[in-house]
Amino acid sequence: MGYVAIKGGKAAIEGAAVATNCLRAANENDVPLALDAIEGQLRLLVSRVVSEGGLYHPKLAALAIKQFQGDTLEAAFALRAYRSTKPRLLETPPQNTAHMRVIRRISSAFKDIPGGQMLGPTYDYALRLLDLGLVDENPEDFRAIARRFLDDAPDSELPDSFPKVLDALRGEGLLPPLKPVAGAPFDITRQPLIFPVSRAAALATMARAETGSLLAIAYSNMRGYGDVHPTIAELRVGYVPVMLPHPVTGEPMEAGEVLMTECEVVAMFEGDDQGGKPVFTLGYGACFGHNEVKAISMAILDRALQKGMKDGASNPSEDPEFVLLHVDGVDSMGFASHYKMPHYVTFQSDMDRLRTTQAKAGNDTALQKETL
Amino acid sequence: MNNTYELPLDEAGYAFGFMDEYAKKEVRRAILKAICIPGYQTPYASREMPMGRGFGTGGLQLTLSLIGRNDTLKVIDQGSDDSVNAVNLRQFVQMTCPDVDVTEKTEEATLIQSRHRIPEKPLTEAQILVLQVPYPDALVVVEPSEARRKTMHGEADYSRLLVKLYEDIVKFDEITISHRYPTRIHGHYIIDPSPIPRWDVPKLHQSKALVLLGAGREKKIYAVPPYTLAEPLAFEDVAFSVEDFRDAQGNRRTCSRCGAVDSFLDEFSNEAGEKIYQCSDAAYCNEQLACQTRHAQTTNTEVFA
Amino acid sequence: MNTTDMTLMNVWQAHTQQRLFRRLLEAFSYPGRLLDATDSGTTARLAILATLLDGEVNLADPHGLITPEDRRRLMASAAAPEQARFVVADAARVPNFTPALGSLESPEFGATLLLEVEQLGAGSPLLLTGPGIASQKQLAVHGLHPDWIARRADWVSAYPLGVDIILCDAKHFAALPRTTQITQEAL
């Protein structure tokens, strides 16, 4: 079943589609995955795909995961391609994450914070011991889990929203005050990145970046190829209401909510430009879905890039071109994969060069031998 | 989570040409500026396509922004219409652009999208060539920073590139660049002409047809307008040369299929381990073969086997 | 206008804009060549603007050539002639501004000027050479104030900076990229 790049391309492609689908359905005793099962039981996988696809649509993300058999790069790519066909109806005004309906909210900077430390659903302090009880999970037991949780939940209600830790730091003058930003935010889907880029362009690029890429570069900064030295002022995960202007009255109304992760890190203090009091510097990370490692990495890189944009980069993580052009999963996986395409004409050209060069080297050696 | 959300299974069909009109307009504006500044890499936002970055999304966005119902499209990869990548792209265009004709014959096409080759048959003013580009910038080999490269291009400061070529000559007695040969357009910008072999570079010079180059991942569009200078870099004592298809005896190899002595040849081994040489440009090869068949029919001579 | 005539294209529709764009492409690829916008059902000026503009770009209209309704449909935001990416102007009037010329790093920000003349194909011949022209090309223009040619020479003198011009009359258009060299023959 050879694939000759010259003939039979169409048949090969069709064959590949059949073979891939067959592998998906190889277990004849299996039942097709329900999208609900993926969305519910693999929610963190769905969160990653929604975040890297740059489209908040958990059901379609679940579909993409099913269709591409769990490959997150392919699934995110499919979402991105889908998004690219959708007409733009309108642009929302900036949304306020202080209104987030949190499911988790912690601060490393303080022992206690107004509203309290809410550990929420996290594996941070779980023991990474494989639970063999999940091997043959009883459906009845499974269905009882959520019911029991809700039955056991205390009657006292959580507040609708929690104050932002950073607001307290600002109030004390330890952080610079918020400055209003003029103009529309940079739209990376409509305008190309021409360096130097704004912080808004950097944040937008990182918000839908591939998690591993962001993590690796952020890690390099944490380990010493940089000096962010972050403390997490606040990490919150929850549902941010999306407020849109009413089509008739113009009043903001809630159109729905999106699950988001937001991380604000406080980094080393520096003197301000006008020679006033030194203040802490801030790094910000936010993305769709429940993706804490990504949000933390993004916040660290935001700080690193701000430093790089201001003072010049002394490490790769501070270099906006290096970071922003190499963290997009669709771009990077596409290019890595493209090496599998036929390259025989270029290779032919390479062989020609090598043979000519070898011949010249051979002649030179022969000449040398003659003259010795 | 919104449990009541229903997936819109009856999604409306795609717009003609898949891309929305705003995306096409942005590409179109970039194309016109690219023609006005020959060889300059014009940035554009570059939408995601359903095929991978690196698989021709830049060329595809150009084609989809250009194509209309009156067009006849040819898509080739490595010179072949039947190569997997070409098949995939062509089928996608046919799917999203109903009423567009496709062809394998170069002379019938109004739009040709190609990866790594320029057709052997000279193009006409009625045709547009779209080349797929992985690396739009000839300077990337000496400077990784795009911002610094932009300055060098603006000032036409290619000294570091010339030094690199010179170092090659000192080391190997040859310019070792095979494909992607740096070529100066309209006396200013040096382009990476995409991974076409050196054999194809002369076709850019004073071409009758417009040549557009699209890099989807790198988000750049550039152009070699018709009737424009396209000069591959060379030195006074080291001229630009194309690939050498002569055998050990100095005879020019011929295509084993059609006998052509003037085309770029693919080299591969057959089952018996023998080296075979064939025209890379499948349409050209077919045309030579058809010519001979007709000739043989009229003169009753044997077809070149 | 006969609204039931199906051969008339609607400049706000995708297929029309694609066809008009291909003609613009030809105009820029082969400077001086006359292209026809008669079947667009409107002026060449509006046909060209509708094809190229949307909400992502801005337009300067210092001589008030575009109606407010068309302006809304074009969606381009307003800008001063010195900053705009697109400028539409009456070619009979003396140019009294310097358009955006771009920068060395980003020459594409040099503006595109759409100059409306009395008639193309008649009047004083411009002699054109440069990319897109096999040897030389003559373009006759009636109603182009000579200052435009003189000012343009300044604007394009520091290549790659420059402006790119589309000339149009009521029905036709031709393009003069910044790379085109123009000499006016003495009458």
Write the layout of secondary structure elements.
The complex is a heterotrimer of chains A (372), B (305) and C (187).
Chain A: H1 9-24, H2 35-41, H3 43-53, H4 58-67, H5 72-83, E1 101-106, H6 139-152, H7 165-171, H8 199-207, H9 211-223, E2 231-245, E3 252-270, E4 279-288, H10 292-311, H11 320-324, H12 329-338, H13 344-371
Antiparallel strand pairs in A: 1-2, 2-3, 3-4
Chain B: H1 21-36, E1 42-43, H2 57-66, E2 72-77, H3 84-96, E3 101-102, E4 111-115, E5 128-132, H4 146-154, H5 159-172, E6 183-185, E7 189-191, E8 210-215, E9 220-224, E10 230-232, E11 265-269, E12 275-279, H6 282-299
Parallel strand pairs in B: 2-3, 2-4, 4-5, 5-8
Antiparallel strand pairs in B: 1-9, 6-7, 6-10, 8-9, 11-12
Helix pairs in contact in B: 1-2
Chain C: H1 14-29, E1 35-36, H2 44-52, E2 58-60, H3 68-74, E3 77-78, E4 86-90, E5 112-116, E6 119-129, E7 137-142, H4 146-155, E8 164-168, E9 172-176, E10 181-184
Parallel strand pairs in C: 2-3, 2-4, 4-5, 5-8
Antiparallel strand pairs in C: 1-9, 6-7, 6-10, 8-9
Helix pairs in contact in C: 1-2
The H-and-E topology of chain A, N to C, reads as HHHHHEHHHHEEEHHHH
Query: Could you estimate the helical fraction of the residues of chain C in percent?
Result: 10-25%
Q: How much is the average pLDDT of chain A? A: 90
Radius of gyration of chain C: 16 Å
Q: The biggest beta sheet of chain C, please?
A: 7 strands, mixed
How are helices and strands ordered from N to C of chain C? HEHEHEEEEEHEEE
Low-pLDDT stretches of chain C? 1-8
User: How many helical stretches of chain A?
Assistant: 13
Q: Class of chain C, according to the CATH hierarchy? A: Alpha Beta
CATH-defined topology of chain C: Rossmann fold
- Widest sheet, order of strands of chain C: 1-9-8-5-4-2-3
CATH superfamily of chain C: Bacterial phosphonate metabolism protein PhnH
Overall residue-averaged pLDDT value of chain C: 93
The first-to-last residue Cα distance of chain C is: 39 Å
Uncertain residue segments of chain A: 1-6
Largest interface: A-B, 62 and 68 residues
Q: Structural class of the secondary structure composition of chain A?
A: alpha+beta
Q: Compute the number of structural domains of chain A.
A: 2
The total beta strand count of chain C reads 10
Key terms for this structure?
heterotrimer, B: 305 residues, alpha/beta, Rossmann fold, 2 domains, seven-stranded mixed β-sheet, three-stranded antiparallel β-sheet, 6 helices, 12 strands, globular, C: 187 residues, 4 helices, 10 strands, disordered N terminus
